[in-house]
Amino acid sequence: MIKQLSYRPSVIAYTIVLRAYGQVGKVKLAEQVFLEMLEAGCEPDEVASGTMLCAYARWGHHKAMMSFHSAVRERGITPSPAVFNFMLSSLQKKSLHKNVLEIWRHMMDDKVVPDHFTYTVVICSLVKEGLADEAFRNFAEMKNLGYVPEEATYSLLITLSIKIGKNAEALDLYGEMRSHKIIPSNFTCASLLTLYYKSGDYPRALALFNEMVRYGIVADEVIYGLLIKIYGKLGLYEDARMAFEETRTLGLLVDEKTYTTMAQVHLNFGNVDKALSLIEELKSKNILLSRFTLHILLQCYVMLEDVASAETTFHAISKTGSPQCSSCNVMINLFMKLDLMDKAREFILQIRDHQIEFDELLLKTVMRVYCKEGMLTEAVKLTEELSRIEPFEKSTFVQTFLLAVQDGRREAEIISSLPSEKINLLALELILDLYIETKDFVEAERIFKLLLGTSNGLSVASQLITKFCKQGDARKAEYLFHLLIEQGQQAEDAACGSLITLYGKQQKLEDAQKFFATVAKSCQGRTNLYRWMVATYIKCHKVDEAYLFYKEEIQEGNDFGPVAISMLVNALANTGKFREAEDAIHKSFQSGLKLDTVAFNTFIKAMLDAGKLRFAASIYDRMVSQNITPSLQTYNTMISVYGRGRNLDKAVKIFDIAQSRGIPLDEKAYTNMICYLGKAGRTQAASFLFNKMQEEGIQPGKVSCKVMIKIYATAGLYNEVEEIVLRMRRNGCPPDSDTYLVLIQAYANASKHLEGEQVIIEMQREGIQPACAHFNVVLVGYTRTGLTKEAERVYGELGKLGLTPDIECNRSMLRGYMEAGQVEEGIMFFERVGGPKDRFMMSAAVHLYESAGLKERAAVVLSSMRREDIPFLKNLEVGSCRKKIEDRMMTTGS
């Protein structure tokens, strides 16, 4: 050691040795040197003590470090800020947050000025120890001293704010962080996405995800899971599915929650098989299914009405603990839906025996079973039991039910005095249901009178009638109407309409007519009754009777209303009764009926379908003159009116008017306009509009892409067609059989026959079976240019794919032989080919036979054509294609 040297000891020398030992991990030797320094009478200074503290911190000797630090403090030595930071960092790495805060408080006591790093470490430990107020106080101090916090610090405090319910503060912190141009981490993004999801702020969630993409922030499985949930809530099924598949492709798909999140989305969109497939995938990975996953599996089987599998899954849920109310609820609803009432009763008995804690939804479901089955005793017993415990003590359902079933004047007075919001509609409905089901009409009438005696009783009764109608129970609804009439009351219009609507669904037109006659005079909203009656006539497929009904009512001077007349005209037009539709339109104009936008739209569309384009245009002019605001549908229909009438300038003008009025045009409007531009041969204008639609943020769908492909194909612009097909694939909308047909036509128009054949091969690779129509386009291309050998080769491919050539393909081949002057081949083909032969084929055969000098055979075919009354085509010419080619060659040569 230093003592062995002929050298007067000093603190500096010892400090150098301490640092050397500390850097290589010789902590024991460093301790010996420090003791030797003390024995030599050298008083350690701030540097020596700090060096020793750093050695302890560097090598994780935290207990020794804490003891040494206490000893140093007792000597009145205060380490430098750098040493404090080193100790704090070392302690935090080992999650010794209490020790971090102890050192921090010593630091404050010793009046050591913290720096940016100190605050970063300390705030983290304060958050980890749940000291929120102190964390935010130090965060404020940090900023007051001019320090800009790091992303990690902001992230911790954002997450903490969300955890303690301070959502606004969390968003403020994020805004502050972004103002410093700090890019958020995926952890911060996950916290904010969770906040947006729970608060239902889905647009901001998607905006944040777009921001992540823009800044290259890599999403993890948690973020993808949240994104799938959000897409599901917004109804964006395809986006949710693509996000899930992207998670799989990136190798992030590990957590059961991500699978179950996507399974729930599949389920919500009715794709039960896909939801089941994901759960099966989980099982194949030997992942033990959680209660949540089992509940989703249960919902799948319920939707499939697979009782056995649902019962097995419910049993599996029961093994994980007491079943949830929601699981019990779906099981009972399944039994009720399938009318398995014995199973429903048995199931309820089981959950009662196992003392499952009810929520209000499960209670109401169980009460439906009891009341439907006439189980009054069980219903009363259950409600009495639950009325004594939370949360049912204040339940309006329980209170209403118990008061109503007690046949007494006092109870009746109590119910009569209750405000409408305190009377539970479902409770009264179920009691009525129970008494009607058991044919206890005395009690049913008592309950109904009790109901009418309450404030707003008539409205509640009308709602009950409406409910019974929605459930398809006309018998109960009629019974309640009968009771109302006995009490001198008239049901509300909505209740009347619901019964008329139910009659329509049940195809009971006569009942609807009788009921209309009963209530029409006393009904306040007669125009609404017309609407429901017209709908009933239409549902009963009696459009003619609906028209007669309309004429009778307007002859009596009654106001039919815009909705009813709109429904009637639409029905007449849809069934091809355009004269009657036009008559109804004229009558509505003559009577001065106040029409709305929907009615005018219906009128215009009806006359468009009828081919009355001038009248349709005049209806639009009337609409504008009456200051009725046109809708997007109006403009779209008028584009069709002018487009079909070949008045393209006016169609373009309508399109421009819609844009100038700020109406957000949709894909349908753009496609409609593009279609008519294409039909007029204005390919460039159509292309411009197609591109403009995309610039407006409207993604072209399959229909608009097909329209544009067809326009390009007609113009022979196969490169543009290829570009759209490629774009369709990129957007997850692969081309179908029709799209490929148009692509082949584009190649054919540009004389690119081999490329057309390649498309057919590509179709097969993608699992799309080519049809005769696809081959026929290629056949026509070859035969028109006299390449009959190539056409024969393509024709032969039909049989290899198991396709029987249709009449179009046979016609193309025969035309090719005839026009190429290949008489012998043409005759052989005609005689060999089976199936029906049309006017062209038979006429071509006659010409070929005559050209070969086979007059008798020609006469046989002609005779057959006369017998079948098929006109003969005289103007066909054998060898016309060859002559054209020879003429072209001679012209080129000269």
UniProtKB/TrEMBL annotation:
Belongs to the PPR family. P subfamily. InterPro entries: PPR_P_subfamily (IPR050872), PPR_rpt (IPR002885), PROP1-like_PPR_dom (IPR033443), TPR-like_helical_dom_sf (IPR011990). This is OLC1v1021012C1. The lineage of its organism: Eukaryota, Viridiplantae, Streptophyta, Embryophyta, Tracheophyta. The keyword Methyltransferase does not apply. The keyword Secreted does not apply. Residues 84-235 form the PROP1-like PPR domain. It comes from the Eukaryota. Keywords: Repeat.
